[in-house]
Design goal:
This protein has helices spanning 45-53, 95-105, 110-123, 139-151, 169-186, 197-203, 221-226, 231-236, 353-360, and strands at 5-16, 19-30, 34-38, 60-65, 68-69, 80-83, 157-161, 189-194, 206-211, 214-219, 241-249, 252-255, 258-261, 271-277, 283-287, 299-308, 313-319, 322-328, 337-341, 348-351. The chain is an alpha+beta fold. It has 3 domains: 2-231, 3-Layer(aba) Sandwich (Rossmann fold), CATH 3.40.50; 240-277 and 344-361; 283-341, OB fold (Dihydrolipoamide Acetyltransferase, E2P). A 6-stranded mixed beta sheet has the order 6-7-8-3-9-10, sandwiched between helices. Strands 13-12-11-14-20 form a 5-stranded antiparallel beta sheet. A 5-stranded antiparallel beta sheet has the order 15-19-16-17-18, with no helix packed on it. It is elongated and about 80 Å long.
Length: 361
């Protein structure tokens, strides 16, 4: 995979005030890939982006662009551009002048600048906005100007540091699709930083989930969501029911004192594990009394709450003192007794978090 990498982080570490922010990170970024760094605040994702852009130097490790280590190369000499969270547009310049700013600094010929700026404006759907003041633009339009200013330089890699965070929900969702479409049309590599799992799952070819300065898991969005490697990833990527269980032997799980069939293997007998079950994978069936469980039902619980969320109901169920969150299309009434059923392949078993963390270090 190394030979296909456009840029490679090799053993990157970084600390601030003796606090480790990045801990021996290695990562391949491929050509034409939309890669997202996803994680909570303080996980190290923005520091990694700044190291890629040349705005920070690592304490250890290399940033390889091809075979060249670019750690000591300043940002303006890298074929990498950055779209910052707050756009950093010049309020005293109009749209054209903002986009052309970097080209003017390079003393490019005026006719060539005009051609490149018009092309960039067309790419971000801002034809005819050349003379508009940036202060007269909406948040989404300002973001497009910032992107146009970055792509007009024809970089190999575009870094985006939470560029949608200041937009309202509807516009943010629209811009997710626009960014993904733009990336495909431009044919350049996007490295995107966010703490929003919906953005990561919607736009990315590859998602890199980070926590405490380390990579917890990376892969395609579907794989990250459907097969989380540990409880942190499962909890951070979407909603999850996470419980402590015991693998009695391969494919046999003990949970809440009951035996469940699952499909996981490779655990020791009687090994303590984390059990993850997604809310949408749980089925509920109403029963008249907890003494009359549905034949084949796995557990019996009592509904404590049911909230309409638009496309589904979110139902909370108490069983043996543990809460289940279930997403389905039925409206259950608090106080009702229900059967809880889950298919074996929807029960995800993983090593305890402490063991997974030890493996990462």
């Amino acid at each position: 995979m190394n030979e296909k990498a456009l840029i490679r982080l090799d053993g990157i570490s970084k600390s601030f005030d003796e606090q480790v922010v990045l801990d021996n990170i290695s990562l391949n970024i491929r050509k034409n890939e939309f890669l997202t760094l996803l994680g909570p605040s303080g996980c190290g994702k923005t520091t990694m982006l700044r190291i890629l852009g040349g705005f920070e130097k690592p304490d250890a490790g290399r940033v390889l662009h091809g075979k060249q280590d670019i750690v000591d190369i300043p940002p303006y000499k890298r074929n990498i551009n950055t779209v910052f969270q707050r756009y950093a547009l010049f309020p005293h310049l109009n749209v054209y002048e903002n986009i052309a700013f970097g080209l003017n600094i390079k003393k490019m010929e005026k006719t060539k600048i005009r051609i490149k700026v018009k092309k960039a404006l067309k790419q971000v759907n801002l034809d005819g906005f050349e003379k508009r003041s940036v202060s007269q633009l909406s948040g989404g339009q300002q973001q497009r100007v910032a992107i146009a200013r970055a792509i007009v330089n024809e970089p190999e890699i575009l870094l985006l540091d939470e560029p949608l965070s200041s937009l309202d929900l509807k516009l943010r969702q629209e811009m997710q699709y626009e960014l993904k479409t733009l990336q495909k049309e431009l044919g350049i590599t996007f490295v995107y930083v966010t703490h929003d799992q919906e953005e990561a799952l919607t736009m990315s070819d590859t998602v890199v989930v980070m926590n405490n300065g380390t990579i917890q898991q990376m892969g395609k969005p579907e794989a990250i969501y459907n097969e989380p490697i540990n409880a942190f990833v499962a909890d951070f990527i979407g909603e999850s029911n996470i419980y402590q269980g015991t693998m009695k032997k391969d494919k046999e799980l003990e949970l809440f004192g009951h035996m469940f069939e699952c499909v996981d293997t490779g655990f020791a007998e009687n090994e303590s594990v984390d059990v993850v079950i997604r809310p949408e994978d749980v089925r509920l069936y109403k029963i008249h009394s907890k003494e009359y469980a549905r034949e084949g039902g796995m557990l019996v619980g009592q509904v404590t709450d049911c909230i309409f969320k638009g496309v589904h109901y979110e139902t909370c169920v108490d069983t043996y003192g543990y809460e289940w969150v279930v997403q389905n299309t039925k409206n259950f009434i608090p106080g009702e007794h229900v059967n809880i059923e889950v298919d074996p392949y929807d029960i995800h078993i993983m090593k305890k978090q402490s063991e997974a963390d030890a493996d990462e270090s």
